[in-house]
Each structure stands twice: as C-alpha cells, then as structure tokens.
Amino acid sequence: MTAQEEHDRTALPDPALLQRWNATLRAARAGREGPDPAPYGRNLLARWAEPQRRYHTVDHLRAVLDRIDELADLGGEGGELELVRLAAWFHDAVYRPDRSENEERSAVLAEKALAEAGLTPHEIAEVARLVRLTITHDPAPGDLNGETLCDADLAILATDPDTYGGYTAAVREEYGFVPEEAFRAGRATILRHLLNLPRLFRTPYGAAAWEERARENLERDLATYEEEKAA
C-alpha cells in the first residue's frame, strides 16, 4: 500500500467511494489519456464531508450512486451512465444552506474539473446540464440521463418511515439558522409542490417501485406541519 493509499484509508470518510470515482472517471474517458482521477475524487469527498452538512453528506452521495446502479441493473434505465454518475458526484459538491446558487456553483466546478480531467466538451456540457437539472428535478420526456439522476436523487422520499424521518431531521439541522415558523412554512410549500406534481419519478422503475411510498411519506409529513400550524 502506498503512502497516499494509506492516507486515503484512514483520512477519507469512505475510501471505497474514491475507488468508485476513479473507476467512473476512467470509464467516462473511455481509454483516453488523462490525469490521475484520485486528486479530483479526494477534493470532492472533502467537499461532501464539510461540517455544515447534515443531509447532503457522503451518505447522500453514496445513496444516489447506489440508486443509479439500481435503476440501471433492475430497471433497465440509465442513458450515459458514467456521465450520470459523474453528475451525481458534482450535484451537491458546492453546498451552503444559506445560499441559493449551489447547483450553479456545482455545475461550474464540474465544468472546470472535468475539462482538466480529460473529458470532451460534449461530456462536460452534459454533466453540467445534469447538475443544473437538480434545481427543478423536472427532466423533459425522453431525457434518460436526466430522469435517471433526478429519480436517484429523490429516492430518499420513498424510504421507510424511520429513514425518511431521519432525512427530514437532517434537513432541519442544515437549516438550523431559519426560525421554526419560517422553516415550517417553507417546508410545507415544498411538500405541496412535490405532491402536486403528476409524477415524482420519471423512469418506469422509479414510478413503479418508489412513487406510492414517496407520496405516503410526503402526505404524512405535510399533515404534521399543518397540524402544528393549527395548534
């Protein structure tokens, strides 16, 4: 084991994720020459481990990557999978709860880093487009890359009630600087928006496996906020 590998094993929040990053970037380059992927991966993992994060952490990154794999393996969806995976790595790489331009800053980071890392202009543009798509989670019909990333990012909504409860608690911690009444009002608005969407999940697998449970969680969550407001 090299000194750098030993450092990664002991210092990184999940060294196995660094291996996944290395494999993804190499696969995206499709045999083309480029710099060592590892320094880029270490930089991204350090970003995902920043202290202000409570939900948008390395655990969230891992979960999104796992759901992309699930969609590809079980649902047959995926599109340009390596580009979708790269977009997952970058989609919350810049994250400050008190800012509204996180997705744009993350997309710009992707454009700069992936140009240095040896991707083509088309590949860079597609990754950046996907990162920006997570602002709305509203891919156009037939946008297989976008559908896959957005479904994977929203899959937390379809988890069991305890896991979903942990997600909502972590989100509240990230926005701890927001007064309780304002947070409840804002959160209720987001929940109503999601519930009013004709479909939360756009891939056939996501719609079949995740839609019903996600709506149950969202409805229960919204009812809690409405009860608190009425009290």
Key descriptive features of the protein:
231 residues; 12 helices; globular; disordered N terminus
Describe this protein's structure.
The protein is built from 12 helices and no strands. The N and C termini lie far apart (60 Å). With 231 residues, the protein is an all-alpha fold. Helix 2 packs across helix 3 (38-48), helix 5 (81-90) packs across helix 7 (121-133) and helix 5 (81-90) crosses helix 8 (144-154). It is 69% helix and 0% strand. The protein is globular and about 60 Å long.
Write a brief structural summary:
With 231 residues, the chain is mainly α. The chain is 69% helix and 0% strand. It is built from twelve helices and no strands.
Q: Gyration radius, to the nearest Å?
A: 18 Å
Overall pLDDT score: 91
Report the count of strand segments: 0
Query: What structural class do helix, strand and pairing data support?
Result: mainly alpha
Helix content: 55-70%
Q: Which of globular, elongated, flat, extended, rod-shaped describes the shape?
A: globular
Largest sheet: none
Cα-to-Cα separation, first versus last residue: 60 Å
SSE pattern: HHHHHHHHHHHH
Low-pLDDT ranges: 3-10
Counted by DSSP, the helix tally is 12
**Strand residues, percent:** under 5%
